[in-house]
Records
---
Amino acid sequence: MARRYAIDGQDTNTATTSILGLTSATTVRPRIFDLIMGSDATPADNAAKYVLQRYTAAGTATSVTPQAIDPADPAALASAGKAHTVEPTYTANAIMLHWAQNQRATFRWVAAPMSEIVLPATAANGIGIQSITVAGSAVNTNATILYEE
Amino acid sequence: MLQFFMKNNFENNKYERKSNGSLIVDGIEVAHTLQCCHCGKHFVSIKGSGMIRGFCMKCMKTTCGSIKCDNCLPFEKRLDLYERGLINGF
């Protein structure tokens, strides 16, 4: 059975800002099977549109250490980052999931078995959650990704 | 508020007997997703969207409807080619 890991991050969802990114390695093909998004800001009616999009360079971000869901598993081979200061180099149109969300709502996407979103075993390639547009005010947004490798 | 959100985004979503994923808002499953067998993208199927998205008769699975996904190149094969540097991007 593949090893499963969790990563989480948060950032203000200003338009074209990445919240969380997962970067592959040359030895594994990470498979994302769960994504959870919400906001811990004071409840208000702000909406935003997000995409889960492939990138070929990870940009600059605060490092996130993937946490093994099974504590007996070794450290993850893939890496992750949050609150990017330099945005990843996204591949045009390589959008794997696209959704709009009210700040008051908690959004979750779950893949059926063998329908996960797969990352290539290529260095620096990955997938990021990026805010595309914001209606109203930008607020702090929290994201969690569960994946296996 | 939830009702407002659902009516605007998911009122036309289609029930999929064999879905590839689920969208859950505030703990309630609001839509199913299908996955393109050529690029791996997940999308919500809505009533009538079969006119836009396609179906690969070789893979016997749904495609997302993008022009680049019209020709059969299974996602696993696409990954292999990409990792070997034989194609650019997805």
---
Amino acid sequence: MRRYGVLLVALFLFLLVFSAGAQEVVLQDDWGRTVQVASPTWRIVSLSPANTEIVFALGLEERLIGVTSYCNYPPGAQAKEKIGSVTEINLERVIRLEPDVVLAGSLTPREVVGKLEELGLKVFVLDAHTIEGVLEDLRKVAVLAGVEDRGEALVETLQEKLRQVKEKVAKLSEEEKPNLLHVIWHDPIWTAGKNTFIDEFITLAGGKNVVADLEGYVTLDLEEVLRRNPDIITVLGTHGDEKISYEFLLADERLQSVRAIQEKKVFLVDSDIVTRPGPRVIEALSLFAQILHPEPFGAYEPPE
Amino acid sequence: MLLGLTVCGAFLSMWFATGVGEGRYRLQDSLSLFSSTSLSSTEYTILFKIRLPRVVLSFLVGGGLAVCGAALQGIFQNPLVDPYVLGVSSGAALGAVIAILSGVYLGLLTVPLFAFLFATLTSFLVLRLSVVGKKIPLEVLLLAGIAVGFFLSAFISLGMFIAGENLHQVVFWTMGGFWGRGWLEVKMVLPFLSGGLLVLSLFTRELNTFLLGEKVSRSLGVDVERVKKWLMLAVSLVVASCVSVSGIIGFVGLLVPHILRLFGYQDHRFLLPLSFLSGGVVLLLADTLARTVLHPVELPVGIVTSILGSPFFIYLLRKKKREL
């Protein structure tokens, strides 16, 4: 009888200790939603490539049980179970995985977020619009997962790299900052004005965005390109082999007089690095810095 | 007389539209068309290689769509017919989708070439499907066009579904527009447009007899089937070439001829050329508006034509319906 008693007490104490690790955490996500989650979150589903990168960067890959079909970085992400694309999400599969938290992204449709919540899941939306916002997201995910120290360390590393870039750029004069046009697509020309990541990259990397007077993502008249006459053009290359925009810019005879094209300063940039609000934002910043100022930052190597 | 006036109107609007840029009109720009030597190379490029060809192209496409709409309405005796009834628009869109998603690159005219190819193939398919004995009954043709159109639309939707990151490129193309269109596109459209217009002009009197119905027309000695074949061939090529360079633009092909009919121009000898000129001016002005209103952002042209044109048409309809 006594033996059973001891066993029961031991079991009780064991459960007590184990459950003491779990606490309720209340955080506000990037859509202003207040989310209460049991931390640490052991089972995480990511609904965007950026969020997948964040989870990996915090060393939490074992806890990642579901990713989108677009999550290709780091390579380990490709082996994870797929729950759909960024916009078409297989709700059934997500439910079956029984995640502690679902990390939604900026492109996740609101209905999906609502639906998942309705079905009893905890959804946390990461939708940063600035580098600072991304660092904040890193911290938040770290808190959710109960690895605050790792979060702080990662943020500190990234901030240090950011500081180094800012230092070198601070030494440049205004005249040394080239005018840059970032081309997302060519028909019509889509570019990024102020209050976008691209604008932040260009500005912090010591350049001037030729469309800094326009708000958000806009299309640009062909004649505007000629008038604004950028010194450098960056072109978004989607997955390497679709260089259509790049070819167009170099081939169209009307654009031949643009300075960037005459001096052959047209650079393809990897969209996986430059369009994801994740830990590689600093790498994206460095890419732009290399393109704008190869002197202090080193030569730029286009993707292939 | 009116024709002369309309021709003048056409040139005037083209001259005016070339002066519109940077979100506003500059008389100086219009005048600069004649004094090209005094321009800087940038201004020259802007005026002669960006604005002027775009103005000319939007006029040609608008005219092409309107005159084809008028011709088809005449052939079909059906006021609801627009130039896309032979499935041309779906064919062109599918060609564009394939070109965009496959990443094939054959030069700057890759997408228009694919669109044109698929558009003409589609209309020939529809025509072929509609042959009953030696005739092409109009009801069968309409239904075949609708059926093929639906079929292709399914593939277009599928394309959009798997497009992923390229979705906006596909959607943009289907919405229609003249961004970045230059002399290259004009050269692509011109041969088909002029050939088609020539053929259409040869059959204006036959089209007039169609107004009385096919039976009456036949009894007047018209070889109805032969005329239909030639006309639809011409229309297919013209519409295919227009849609391949500009995407799918609605309203112009359907309603411009009707507006002219409401003003009393039923005679195809006048209706066709007037449709061409009016359609051209309408689309030209719509495009000018589309690139000016939210400068430097552009609205898709189709939206402008529909928003402005449809209420106007409704107004006209209400005014004139008692006379109809």
---
Amino acid sequence: MPSHASSDFPKSPDPADLSTDEIVAAVLAGDLEAYRQIVLRYQNEVMRVVNALVFDLSAREDIVQQVFVRAYLALDQYESGRGFGKWLKAIARNLVREELRKTLRHRGRVEAYAKLALERLDSPDDEELRLAREQALRDCLETLEQQDTHAARAVRWHYLEARQTADIAVEMKRSAGAVRTLLYRARALLRDCLESKLASP
Amino acid sequence: MKRLDELTQLAIEGSLSADEEAELERLLASGTEVKRRFQELIDTEIALRCLDERLDLSDAVMARLSGRAMPPLSVLPAPPASEPVSKDSFEGKVERWTLRLIVPIAAAAAVTLAFALFHDRTDFEAPALAVTGTVRVADESGKEAAPDRPLRPGDLIRVPTGAAGTLSYRDETRIDLTAGAEVRVDSDPARGGEKSKSLELVVGTLAAEVAVQPAGQPLVVRTPHAVAVVRGTRFILEAQDDRTRLEVSEGRVDFFAAGATHPAVVTAGRFAEVDPSAGAVVPLVRPLRHTDGLLALYTFEEGSGETVHDRSEQGDALDLTLSGAGADPLEWLPGGGIRFGKKGHLATRRPARKIIEACRSSDEITVEAWVEAAPSVASGPARIVTLSRASERLNFTLAQGDSQGDPERRYVARLRSSKTVADWPAPVGSATGRLSHLVLVREAGGRETFWLDGERIGERNAGGSLKEWFDDLPLGIGDDPGGENRSWRGSCHLVAIYRRALAPAEVMDHHEAGPR
């Protein structure tokens, strides 16, 4: 049985070593597997856009996958050198808008938040600041655990497990309104905590 | 600032009214400090929503893309007049114009060549046509062919009501044509390569069992809306006036919307539809419903009348009939589904013994419904799907609300075992006017799960067995058959009952498949 490992054939470059534009060229030339590297490279950025706008956990994953499928099908329209991440995020935003229109009944109202979030997501992204904010938020969540256990639990269930307030209300044996108040209080505390953490050197 | 926080909170929750939105805009225009705080609140919300553990979706994406590579030109359906070209450079423009000139010339040459091949071909394999009843065959000019004449390219086969036909090829490919089908033979050989088998399904349904085709020579079936490219598989293709549906039971089919260049790859156990009015370039592929263990299935596609047929094709059909004193006519919903009027419900005319006996024996059951909740409930739990005559004579019910009505807008399940018949409420707010997928599953031994819209919303160990079920209860939708005091006035799009516990993946498949 021939061993592929000892083959003298020249080895294809590892897609992980290539620039995104080089990978795009490889995919367009028929190397479908190279597209995996694109997914690995950009999935977190796409998730960030989708997560910010879609609350349902399974819908989020499905939309992220759809973004990459749609990008693949339109790959010949991507203009090399124009910033693949930016192009991909534009596809993600459009897809999320379509999904929101399809699935949400109070279209106008939901889009009020979506509009605001999109504005923020469209603003120039300082990766370092974003990572710092994420880490600070995790620290603030730990602080919140000590300040207000119930509010911290509501935040974890709502944001980390994507559970609806009605569901949390049943679990906590409170009214849905009380859970909303709890989340409101938690957000305000987290914002204040974030402000002080990001302001300190 | 407090008012700003409140308004931002409402915006985040999606419950900002138009007046409040205007108030928020006024506040934001009042100063940079307000705007800065507002942006921080939104940033905090975005950061919170992005906190969950990062997932690697690369396998899932690659699985979706598998087989989506551009197929060889010979099997492409009619390509669009011009593909978007992204290059704006001079070279790009030259290339585009060169393509615009060369492609039509090349295409014309190819069509001419194909036409010549078509008429001079000696390799055309006429499929044999076996018929039951009277099937009519007309040639390209519309002239009816003699009954015993071998099929020729361009022949149109019409299968009238009460008849059936089967096309057979030498490689044992077999295509069954059902009543109402119109199929043109080898209508366009250029599309599939000169040696390919090629058919046009003008209207109706065909079921195909296709032997593995030689490389580069797939079987191609066109419909008015779509093209199916087949290399060897089993599938059912249905062309209606406004859409084409493909179901694959074995292998895979590349399924193109007419004029599109990228196919949806439809693999075994999945289906796709091309609906030109929906405007999708690549058809959406969804799982087929699972049928193993099915006892009763209602799809509410009758469109009129007072009877809903059991379409499970398992045992005696348990059809449902509009019942109850002074029952209002059913409102039939476009695309399938019913809405109840003020009075009346659906019920079987006899006890649902095939359900009762099968579930007593298996000690398992799955009850599934696609519904939109009733706007209000007078006296609950209002029966959506029920095997009961009254609260005290009940085997199972999927219902809405409780004895106080439905103040908390929630669905509820009740399943009798030898140990319990306790209500099992879904979360508050679960019953909405939105189309929802409800599934109650019991495994042998008593573990039960309650699903809403593809999510597991509850799990419990009820224990006991189903052996003590009442054996004389009819199946009802909309109220207890005969009881008429647990009236449910929502709309119903699909109901299915299984003798077994559907696996979680199967429940999620059914949610993804939707009610149609």
